[in-house]
UniProtKB/TrEMBL annotation:
Stretches assigned to the 3-hydroxyacyl-CoA dehydrogenase C-terminal domain: 187-283
Species in which this protein is naturally found: Paenibacillus lentus
Key word NAD present: yes
Pfam families associated with the record: 3HCDH, 3HCDH_N
Statement: the UniProt record of this protein carries the keyword Zinc: no
This protein's name: 3-hydroxybutyryl-CoA dehydrogenase
Source species taxonomy: Bacteria, Bacillati, Bacillota, Bacilli, Bacillales
Biochemical pathway: Lipid metabolism; butanoate metabolism
SUPFAM superfamilies the record matches: 6-phosphogluconate dehydrogenase C-terminal domain-like, NAD(P)-binding Rossmann-fold domains
3-hydroxyacyl-CoA dehydrogenase NAD binding domain location: 5-184
Amino acid sequence: MMIQTVGVVGAGVMGSDVALDLACNGYKVILKDIDEAAVRRAKEKIQSEFRLLKMVKPKTKPLSLEEVIERITFTTSYDKFGETQFVIENITEDWDMKKKVYLELAGVCGADVYYAANTSCVSITKIGALMPRPERVIGMHFMNPVPMKKLVEVIRGEHTSEETIRVGKEFLQSFDKVPVVVNDFPGFVTNRVLMQMINECVWLIQDQVAEPQDVDKIFRLGFEHKMGPLATCDLIGLDTILYSLNVLYDSYKDPKFRPCPLLVKMVDAGYLGKKAGKGFFEYRL
Ligand code: NAD
């Protein structure tokens, strides 16, 4: 099957990046969010990130901004989802919200569409079980920022067919990604480890063991991490980290995933990280 048009649901941090990367690589994209303001912000973000990409990767992105924007339909409706061959869902990390979206997608997309869930921790098997053709559901855990990161953790749900894995891998390779296939278990490989590490660093701040900049400096200089765990937390979004820890905690019933109260308090205060201008560090919006 030729993939030409991709439906991207959720136009936040990840959805807007996925749309930009796909459009830069020749795909037509229908970028859909439930929130008009999110769609507007996504268009602005895509424009400024494209300019940045041009500077960082000048040779690999020969298109003009106009050509890229022209390939993306920014919308709050499912009207054009009948034209898609592949859908990548990137909505909020909340099971009830995701469930609603998949049931809607099943009603508006063609029978042959493949569905990829870009999720930090939600079970791909549980999503597959909602759909009329569960063998066509796969997990694609993209890394942030998407156009700069080659790795995609591909998750094989209980029902995912080998054909879907093959199509998914070929699709990812077509826009220069490197897929690594893992089996479905909450948090997969990346986030089962990363979320615990970030959470423990928040405990360090709560216990006043060190300031955020010093925690990050220890990881950068001591372990050669490109980015410290608290800057990573800000980049991902504190709300997304909290949602993910809650999913892990509920799934394993293991106290090691219990979200640090300081994380909960910061989310309650609206300190969601880079996207909000403030998290463990401050950002200009
Ligand atoms: P975000 O909060 O930035 O964006 C989520 C978007 O989904 C919002 O714009 C919201 O309006 C939209 N949305 C909510 N309900 C919707 C609906 N019914 N229909 C359409 N849109 C809807 O979140 P994000 O950081 O982009 O994360 C999205 C997904 O990607 C999550 O599952 C997250 O776990 C996963 N993820 C995030 C990162 C990261 O670094 N932020 C990395 C990998 C994966």
